[in-house]
Structure formats: C-alpha cells, structure tokens
Amino acid sequence: MTTLHLFIYPQLTDEPPKLRALPGDIGSRTAHKPLVIDPHENLIALAHGNDNRLEICKLEIASRVPRLQTLYLLELPPLKPHVRCVISAAEKEWVPTSPYQDYTQSSRQRLVPFRSCRVGTLFFSVDYNPLHSSSAQRYGMIVNIAALLSAARLDHQRVRTIPWSKWGPTATRVFPFHCGVACPAGPFWIMEDTPRTLIIQDYDLQGKLRIQATAENVSSVSRPTAMPTKAFGQHWGAGKVNTHLPYRDVVAIDSRRRPMYGTSTLIDREWFLRVSRRVSS
Amino acid sequence: MTGTSPHSQPVLSFFQFTTGAPHPLASEHVIWLPQIPSHSVPSIEIEVLGDYILVSEEYLYRPCPEYQTRSHNLRVVSWKTGAVSRVSDNLTFIYLSTAH
Q1: ipTM
Q2: Which of A54, A228, B51, B78 is deepest in the core (most CB within 10 A)?
Q3: Whole-angstrom Cα distance, residue A246 to residue A243?
Q4: B83, B88, B96 from A22: Cα distances, Å
Q5: Residue contact B71–A26, C-beta within 8 A
Q6: Range among A187-191, A222-226, B34-38 with highest mean pLDDT value
C-alpha cells in the first residue's frame, strides 16, 4: 500500500505546515491528466504542480504490462520556501486527426482512422499559494513542445532533471492570467474573450495558418515578438521570470457595438463564431 | 465511447462516421472496459496513439475539506485486436480547494 503525504499550509498565516496523509489506495505519482504530445513516439506530458515540474514520459506499450517510462523531468521556475504550486488546468492545442489535404473522397476510403498529430504547444494554468487569499497568483504558461524536447535531448543521461534556466526561458511564455483556461484554436490560443475584445496569441510563426490582417477586418496583428515577457511574483525565488518564446498577438476590438454578454466561441480552423446576448436597458 | 453512470461499464465502439458500418480493421468493433465501481462516476477521456487508444478514467475524491484529488486509471486499448491492458502507473492529481 502506498501512502502519499501532502503538506497543507494554513490559509492566512505562515505557520509551519501540517502533515496529512492521503488515502493509501492512490498511486505514488501525482500529476494532472496525461497529455499525449507525440503519438508517433508515444510521448506523454505530465504536469506535477506538487513537485513544481513537468515530466515527459514514453508509454511503453510493447512491454507485457504497459507502463510510463520517464524520459525527462523539467523544472518549473524555482520557488521560495513554503510556496505551493498547483497546476489547475492543462490543455493542448487542437490538432486535426488527419492533414487537411486528406479531406478528399479518396481519403474517406482509407482504412486508417484515428490518426493523430504531434502537438505544437501546451497551456498550463499555474496557481501559486491558492489558499492564501493575500498572495494567491495565477499565471498562464505556453510551452512549445519542439523547443522543450530540443533542450531535453541535449544531454545523454538516462533520466534527466533539466533546470528551468536550461529550457524554460526559450521554450515558454509565462504571463499573469486571470481566466480559468485558455481556449485552443489550432496553433493559436484565445487568451481573452470579452464582450468587446478578442485576444489571440499565435505561436505558429513558421506555419501555414498565419493570421493575415486585411483592410476589411478590424483586427490588429502585431509583428512576431521575441521580446521577453517579464512576470514578477514574490513566490518565485528570483522574484521574476523572463520568458521569450516568439509569438504574435492578434487583437480584435469591436468598439461599434454595445457590450455583449454570455459569449461563447465556436472555432473551426480559420473561422470562429461568437454567440452572445445583448442586454437592453 | 458511452458516458458513465453508477454501475456502468465503458465501451469503445469503432464505426465509420458516414455509413455507420463497423470498422473493417477492428476485429472487435465493440470493446468493453472493466466495470466502473458502483460508488464512482468517473469522467473518461481518450487519446489516440496510432494503433492504440489511451483511456483515462478520472475519479474525484475529497478526502478533507481543504483539497480534492483526482485519480486517473490509465488503460491502453488496441483498437485493431480489442486487447485491453491497464497501465501500471496510476496518476493522482491533487487540487487544493478553498471550499469548506
């Protein structure tokens, strides 16, 4: 029987932590739901908020009992003592189950369904000290999988723990985040979807799905930026985190209309449909 | 995949979307997973890994008011052969909650 211990900190004080035990029938690994990032190599990402790190595993299917084989452990920004990190949401970008060019009559007759694609980016909602009302902070983190794996494969040890400084600044963007979860739209991420403003971050700077500004639309498309995002927070050991994964902001502001409420968004690759209701006074 | 309810049993079904015909490469186009415990109502997610499907059963626990945990049972299903294997590792996600 495995017993997992968890430190719980008092809500409003900095008293020494109390040790409590979780029920013994749960596993010894603590992680958010598994995210398949590379179906060709059976690679899976696990987010361990309790350990302040990400784990890249290979699902060993061929073995008699399938198991998760740890390949890399990637540390998140170092924390000050007694700071708790909780990853409250984890999402991966939307990827098609087959390439666009395969949507043809002939491809419909193919007998290989369920094909899935490599994932380009992940999103994590990271909460620090969520039980401390005075110091609770939430940040969003976009992780570029190719950059992450590139940094991880530089070393040749069997299982490696990679410090944040070796991979994080180049492979991520960390920014204050006030919503629950970002919404994926292909390689893009909808970061803010308010009645008048839609903010999309485009991390597919080399891809075919680049958003183009036209004379007709009301969007402003920024140039790709590699300028660091400086996020400040007292929970981090260094007091701040600098990240510079390149991306572009796409901002659509509709100032002509009155605010709409109850917005929901349906996305189908290039197009999105917003459903809202207008409140009359 | 069907949803789950108390005393339920998840089932994977492989059909062609346009015709509803059973998938010709699947030796068993309906695969039953182990029965769900009667006291649990997990949410189920699936991911595709080539010839296999990774099925994650997520169970929610609240062992004390301050936090809740979500435990994942992982299974690998070969959609061509119908073989179901349990992944040796279980995952537990701990989520702190301010609800009292």
Answers
A1: 0.79
A2: A54
A3: 9
A4: 33, 20, 13
A5: yes
A6: A187-191
To the nearest whole angstrom, how far is the Cα of B70 from the nearest Cα of chain A?
8
Distance of CA A163 to the CA centre of its chain: 19
CB A188 within 8 A of CB A201: yes
Q: What is the per-residue burial (b if ≥16 Cβ within 10 Å, else e) of A109-131?
A: eeeebbebbebbbbbbbbbbbbb
- Mean pLDDT over B59-68 rounds to 71
**Measured between alpha carbons, how far is A221 from A202 in angstroms, rounded to an integer?**
10
Q: Greater confidence, A160 or A218?
A: A160
pTM of the model: 0.78
Identify any residues that bridge with A175 across adjacent strands, giving them in sequence order: A140
**What 3-state class would DSSP assign to A152?**
helix
Closest in A34, A40, A112 to B74, CB measured:
A34
User: Which of B91, B95, B97, B100 would best serve as a mutation to test chain A binding (most A beta carbons within 10 A)?
Assistant: B91
pLDDT of residue A6: 33
Look up residue A154 and give its two tokens: 């530089």
Residue A121 · residue A187 · CB < 8 Å: yes
Question: How many angstroms separate the CA of residue A217 from the nearest CA in chain B?
Answer: 36
Query: Tell me, what's the pLDDT at A93?
Result: 85
Chain B: residue whose CA lies nearest to A5: B94
Q: Are strands A67-75 and A160-162 parallel, antiparallel or unpaired?
A: parallel
Mean pLDDT of A198-226: 65
Count of all residues that appear for chain A in the document:
281
Read off the tokens for B21: 């015909």
| One-character DSSP codes across A248-281 | EEEEEE--SS--EEEEEEEEETTEEEEEEEEPP-
Torsion of CA A50, B90, A65, B13, to 10 degrees: -120
CB atoms within 10 A of CB B56: 18
